[in-house]
Amino acid sequence: MSIKAEEISALIKKQLENYQDKLVVDEVGTVTYIGDGIARAHGLDNALSSELLEFSNGSYGIAQNLEANDVGIIILGKYADIREGDQVKRTGKIMEVPVGEELIGRVVNPLGQAVDGQGEIKTSKTRPIEGQAPGVMQRQSVSEPMQTGLKAIDSLVPIGRGQRELIIGDRQTGKTSVAIDTILNQKGKDVVCIYVAIGQKESTVRRQVESLKKYGAMDYTIVVEAGPSEPAPLLYIAPYAGSAMGEEFMYNGKHVLIVFDDLSKQAASYREISLLLRRPPGREAYPGDVFYLHSRLLERSAKLSDEMGGGSMTALPIIQTQAGDISAYIPTNVISITDGQIFLESDLFFAGTRPAINAGESVSRVGGSAQTKAMKKVSGTLRVDLASYRELESFAQFGSDLDSATQSKLNRGRRTVEILKQPLHKPIPMEKEALILYSLTKGYLDKVEVDQILDFEAQLFDYFDSNHASILEQIEKTGDLPENLDELNQAISDFVDGFTSK
Amino acid sequence: MKLDNKTIGQRYAKAFFELSLERKTLDTDFEELSVLMQLVKENTELGDVLTDPRLRDSEKQKLLTTFSQSFSQNVQDFLNLIQDYKRFDKIEFIIDAFNDYYNAYYQKATGKVTSVVALDDNQKANLSKAYAKKFGLKSFEFENEIDSSLIGGVIVEAQGQVIDGSVQTKLKRVKQSLQK
């Protein structure tokens, strides 16, 4: 591209003509304490709560504590060269991040600046990071499904668009994988995904971004990243910044999926800030408003009413527990805020049940009404089957004499567990999930050996793709099983006969 | 919780200000405190010595009397009271706060004006008049500082506000708008 010199001078001339020589009155304060990413400043008598302040070295800060004689400020960025006695200037603005389509496909920090080395992001719009959540009349109840592509979740703990579903579990139980798989499954569904990585190792984030790229998911995804080497204030604001980016799409009638990975680390960084600001510590040394920290964040995810454009923001917050203790402070808080939780267990994970979802303790309070009719029909008995299997399983280990009813329950249970397993990054479309679960509940799988089930599943999908694509299409289109099930039954039993006689 | 310096300063200053207002000795007290401030600034260790726990009270009292003798009875009593409460290390904050009360009472302000060359008397008078008018004050007093890096114009700092009319800042702003 050639640049014409006169065009640039013309531009400069225009800018200079419009350049207004206004005297600006700045309100300033003096730094009296600086350290650990926190500053205190005298003066700034008119500073507002969470107002953006500018230090003389160019760093920005947020006014957090407004006290009688000084202001407690959290610093976003470099603070090594701020000294006692330096000036702090009011900006009159509250913290905002750039929002809009331009961010899609990029990796940004919580301030909205690119960190993927692909150049500056030029957006035309910004949004304050803290915003009022939509009110009662602006909402409607969750009605559309948010397909995760994971059989275990879509059948047992269905998620609807606009729901907040917590993913909770110990370290190394596949929490992030569930979230990433859900993002991968949104391909072609016109959903904007936002992955907020809070305090995750930079190498891990890199790996997630690579897998998102590999499966073509970066075309509709924004990654907001606040690494462990960033100062605590950036980790604290990261989920709010991500929500602001999501809200822009939601209020424009689009569907958004936002993943907070993870909120335990955000709570820990908020605790750090609060203790340094000398706020009184409470339980587990978290400050008194740690509940509000998460409730105001998750309340911003909603399903908007049709008058508001009908957009939605589905939130998948992640919480890491210590040794399965879900009654610690932060887990109980977030469980009570969200509309249900997916509980992942390390025992199941190491036993090979992946995703390691504990079906008994995982619930979805509102997703049921958003589930497709097909899934509702095939998954109705699943939870009961699993529960009675778990109960019988412990008995079966002792005795050998079991009546045939018990035997068949055990058989069905084993196959159910097997069917709910799914390999990493292989989301399954809804119609196929319905197909395999239908085969299971109708007993077609009872004749198949347990160790051949996953093989059976793959071949069944291939068989339907090549021979009965119309049935799958119909399920996909109507979201329901065909009215006349004969054709479906016939097709499945044909395939089972072929498979078992091999 | 420990009181911060500013709060302590305000409490002592307010008490003294109200008393001297009642006794109608405000102006003389103000002047004496200004002298004291000068003294404290020249002898930075004075406050620390007067609150040093290793020295006996009688010794400290002796030291205090030597320099407080020249002041009026009002100020002497005040200094003795501060000494009794072991707050002499906060004397600077107390005088600062007193000056704030004094300025507020007479509706005036004090501050700092930075310029490239020293302002002449006429300029000073005009500036202080303009400032006082803008903020609804009766008068504005300032110290004049010289800083050649400003290139031109002045910077007025007072009442926690900065009015920056320097050429340096204007150039900086032009630079920013061109970079966009």
UniProtKB/TrEMBL annotation, chain B:
The keyword Hydrolase does not apply. It comes from Holzapfeliella floricola DSM 23037 = JCM 16512. This is ATP synthase subunit delta. Pfam families: OSCP. F(1)F(0) ATP synthase produces ATP from ADP in the presence of a proton or sodium gradient. F-type ATPases consist of two structural domains, F(1) containing the extramembraneous catalytic core and F(0) containing the membrane proton channel, linked together by a central stalk and a peripheral stalk. During catalysis, ATP synthesis in the catalytic domain of F(1) is coupled via a rotary mechanism of the central stalk subunits to proton translocation. Gene3D superfamilies: N-terminal domain of the delta subunit of the F1F0-ATP synthase. GO terms for cellular component: plasma membrane; proton-transporting ATP synthase complex. It is found in: Cell membrane; Membrane. Keywords: ATP synthesis, Cell membrane, CF(1), Hydrogen ion transport, Ion transport, Membrane, Transport. One of its GO terms (molecular function) is proton-transporting ATP synthase activity, rotational mechanism. Coiled coil: none annotated.
